Amino acid sequence: MKIIRRSIYCFIGFVFLFYCNRQPAFTVAIDLLANDQWIYSLSYRQSGNYRWNEAKEQLFNTISCELACTIEESQENVSVIARNSKISSNILDKSEVEHIHQTFSDVAIQLPLINGVPQFSDTGISSLSDLRQRGWYRQFVKLLPQLPNKPIRPGATWDRDRQWSFQTPQGDVTGTLYQSFVFDSVSRNDDDLLATIGWQFRHSLRPSDSGVTTSLQGLPLYGTGKGVAIINLEKKYLVRAEIQFSTPETPLPGFSLVWEEKAALELLETIESGEVKL
Question: How many CB atoms lie within 10 A of CB 227?
Fold first, then answer.
């Protein structure tokens, strides 16, 4: 009986492996160079539940806008301009919100392109002096999944691990981001062949010295999240993407903070040689 059961399991495994290998492989890619301009809607929300002894408060920042992404003539960079932005917050006062409106809206930033995919660089957004504004622009690139440069089949997995350093008012901090991706599925919508890419990620911050660690005590220094993106396989563009990120409750007596971030990006239209295509 054990031999028969083992044989059945082996047969099922062989059939499953054979079926997976028979599925076609796809080149999953995003290439902004396919059009002169892309118009995306971007929404981003930060929220947190804050408690200090008996006092409780829910904190939030939200921003929504259109991102006009124009390919420069050299095709080495994409110029990104936020339009029609709306900001709501119970963390920032009215003057801070107005300041962000004035400096954030209609300000062009240049992001370098590698194989048609924008890369985020602080040197490219020197016109934005406020770190919060840079953080909102980062969402645009964070919503673009890291894709392999070879054909893959549904079910394929890959990961990405990277570090970077930056300055905070408390001192230097090193950030670590680990992402684990999966090619979920392929579907057809009218004439479009679409790929669904999902991912999980873990983000952590490590202060440079003990003094910085003390000043950041009680603040969330790590968290986890997940994302999903829909990509047009034949036309090589991002249709829409969403991510969400949360931190665990801060374990300090009399104080707690649970933080969450959500961001969404969706294509509104493309323009080639002055002609609106979507």
Answer: 21
Which residue from 194, 261, 181, 265 is spatially nearest to 233, judged by alpha carbons?
194
Q: Which residue has the tokens 């929404």?
A: 43
Do the beta carbons of residue 204 and residue 168 sit within 8 Å? Answer: no
Q: What is the pTM of this model?
A: 0.79
How many helices and strands (H and E) does the chain possess? 4, 12
What's the structural domain count of the chain? 1
φ and ψ of 4, to 5 deg = -65, -45
How many residues are recorded in the chain?
Answer: 278
Radius of gyration of the chain (CA): 22
Residue 31 phi, psi (nearest 5): -140, 100
Q: Residue 48: CA atoms inside 13 Å, Cβ hemisphere, count?
A: 20
230 found inside a domain = yes
Q: Is residue 245 part of a domain?
A: yes
pLDDT tens by residue, 39-87? 999 999 988 887 777 778 888 889 898 989 999 988 999 988 888 888 8
CATH code at position 58: 2.30.230
- Within a domain: 24: no
Query: Cα separation of 95 and 103, whole Å?
Result: 12
pLDDT digit string (tens) for 209-226?
655 554 455 566 788 999
Residue type, 213: T
Instruction: Report DSSP state, residue 90.
Output: S
Whole-number Å distance between alpha carbons of 79 and 204: 30
> Could you give the 3-state DSSP secondary structure of residue 31?
coil
Task: Give residue-wise pLDDT tens across range 8-24.
Answer: 545 544 444 444 455 78
| Residue 10 within a domain | no
